[in-house]
Amino acid sequence: VCLAIPMKITAVHGDMADVELGGVTRKVSVKLVSNPKPGMYIIAHAGFAIEVMHEDEALETLKLLEELSEISDGISKQEANAKNSEGDPGRA
Amino acid sequence: VIREELDRPARLMEVCGTHTVAIFRNGLRDMLPPELKLLSGPGCPVCVTPQDEIDKAIELTGHAIVATFGDMMKVPGSRSSLEKEKASGADVRVVYSVLDALDVARKNPDRQVAFIAVGFETTAPSIAVAVQMTAAERLDNFTILPCHKLVPPAMTALLSAGEVEVDGFICPGHVSAIIGSRPYEPVAKKFKTPCVITGFEPVDIMQGIEMLVRQIAERRSEVEIQYTRVVRPGGNPAALRAMKETFEVGDARWRGIGVIPKSGLRLRRSYARFDAVSRFALKPGSAKEPAGCRCGDILRAVKTPEDCRLFGKRCTPENPVGPCMVSTEGTCAAHYKYARLPKFTRK
Questions:
Q1: What interface predicted TM-score (ipTM) does this complex get?
Q2: Which of A68, B123, B218, B243 is the most exposed place for a label (fewest CB within 10 A)?
Q3: Measured distance CA(B281)–CA(B309) in Å, rounded
Q4: Which chain A residues touch B97 with a CB distance below 8 Å?
């Protein structure tokens, strides 16, 4: 349940804010963090921002996650290729 | 590094379901030397919710629209589950946030809405805010079933019971974002057990383990923060304030562990009218646990899922018998998904 992906605040409306991750925008409550502003990165849990992350650390985390997903995509593709070359289309 | 520093076998426990899943998904257990063992503790909120609270949640479907986080749906109570009640016509709604449940109440002013408030310190502040909003908006049709549990008291309860030897705790990242590092001090000081607050990426977890091993090797027992990019020693003051204003600490029953003193949250007197138990006069049920289910022992890390005769046979994610198989963060579900197959292929 604990999603550790930093999301970027794009707009603040009172206690709520729009946050963006990978082109997808969703609304979270910012009642539990102080001075929420557009451009800040937050960690959200069950619809609430629970902590603010420094921008450089957030960007580093996002870069790391992107690399990891590229690696696992690469592995899945390799596995898929290996399976295809084994002539086992039923397991795709 | 780990192998060089460790001069004796050590057992580290994670007490967070997200850690359990991350450790299994990334095969971290297999990357560690055999003298270092990882145990899964009571870190899954749904799993530690005792049977009488599950039964109350199910009973609530007779009084109100029940709003709940998704992983509660399939948990079997003594006689039914929320999913079965929904299938037979009850109005049960899966929500992502307590704010969505509050919206259901606003949109249905002539019906009662009850939210099943499970979770640890990470979730409790959001429920506190929702209860305060309910009071401020004078909504008279929203209640919560308070099932919140606190993590550090469960850690000390496990150590006091002495059933399982723990040489260090991998402490939860986001629980600690709320409470900070201080609440773990009794674990480190009184029980001389090192604690490291750890993030959720594989590199975070490996670094957290390394910090624990170093403490063990150097005979230190302190609370350290590996997850410094999110966790501050004092926690999140606004979240702690919201929790304190709304809830008071009380004894709570945990599945498999029993009643742990000061390990739960109940609504303060000023917010007691938002407690579903009193509004609908819910009675304590028989709270019968499923026959043969070892979830309780597994939550205390006294048994592993493989020790349970139902595991993978009568109890699977499709047809779970106990909550540890229902929740994606449950130890049984993690073992079923990630650890079952390699066991047969490993030499």
A1: 0.91
A2: B218
A3: 38
A4: 29, 46-48
pLDDT tens profile B51-67: 999 999 999 999 999 99
Residue B116 β-bridge partners: B145
Structure confidence by residue, pLDDT tens digits, B25-58: 999 999 999 999 999 999 999 999 999 999 999 9
If you measure CA to CA, which chain B residue comes closest to A52? Answer: B230
Inter-chain touch A2–B199, beta carbons under 8 Å: no
Tokens representing A57 are 């650390």
Two structure tokens written together for B347: 């030499």
Both structure tokens of B294: 């070892």
Distance CA B106, CA B131 (A): 13
Name residues whose C-beta falls within 8 Å of residue A13's C-beta, 6 or more positions apart in sequence: none
Between chains, do B129 and A48 touch, taking CB under 8 Å as contact?
Answer: yes
User: Looking at this protein, which amino acid is placed at residue B242?
Assistant: A
List chain A residues with CB under 8 Å of B232: 51
The helix (H) or strand (E) run that includes residue B14 is: strand B10-14
User: Rounded to an integer, what distance in angstroms lies between the CA atom of residue B138 and that of residue B143?
Assistant: 12
Show the tokens assigned to A77: 């593709």
* Rg of chain A, C-alpha, whole Å: 18
